[in-house]
Write a sequence for this structure.
């Protein structure tokens, strides 16, 4: 069960600003994140420029609405569409999307996060039924793994990496990549091993174009 049989209060996830933009991905594959495609919630290859992958974590009801473990409620609102993720009709069914009304406390669009399941990953559960949470359908290794278009459903806790999620600020994700690339290059300069981070090279004159190698030439 998503409640893990514990009903004591656990440490809540870090608070977020009202205008902070998040990416949402599962531990089964960090190369894919939550997106809206054709009116459905799916996983898609990470693309910072794709606003259907940008999410607001609306915490306006967090002080008054909590789950059975005392974790604060929030809504996940897609920046591109203005739609909120809604509970599905039950286990194995895909989550839905509905227009978000910030003036109305609608439990069907409210979620909570579990305790930390390791490295900042948590389960995302229904506020009024912590047994059911986000599940990247067949996204575990035994069933083929995550792919472009993987459906997000609700499922009881099965200890799967496809059920552990991270709601991470896009800005911090970019900073981590840039910092990692810098550290890798510095280690190489000091006589360490080769850099382990891929980097993108582009100029200020046209950020839509990147350095590439074609036919042996740059």
């Amino acid at each position: 069960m998503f409640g893990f049989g514990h009903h004591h209060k656990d440490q809540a996830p870090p608070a977020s600003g009202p205008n902070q933009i998040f990416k949402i991905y599962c531990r089964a594959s960090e190369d894919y994140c939550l997106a809206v495609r054709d009116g459905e919630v799916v996983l898609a290859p990470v693309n910072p420029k794709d606003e259907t992958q940008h999410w607001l974590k609306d915490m306006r009801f967090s002080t008054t609405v909590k789950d059975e473990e005392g974790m604060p409620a929030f809504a996940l609102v897609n920046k591109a569409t203005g739609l909120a993720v809604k509970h599905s009709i039950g286990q194995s069914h895909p989550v839905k999307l509905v227009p978000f009304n910030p003036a109305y406390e609608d439990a069907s669009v409210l979620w909570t996060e579990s305790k930390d399941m390791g490295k900042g990953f948590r389960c995302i559960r229904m506020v009024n039924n912590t047994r059911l949470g986000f599940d990247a359908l067949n996204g575990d290794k035994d069933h083929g793994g995550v792919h472009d278009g993987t459906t997000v459903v609700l499922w009881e806790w099965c200890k799967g990496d496809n059920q552990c999620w991270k709601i991470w600020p896009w800005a911090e994700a970019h900073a981590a990549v840039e910092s990692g690339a810098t550290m890798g290059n510095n280690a190489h300069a000091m006589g360490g091993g080769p850099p382990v981070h891929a980097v993108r090279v582009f100029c200020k004159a046209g950020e839509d174009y990147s350095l590439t190698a074609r036919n042996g030439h740059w």
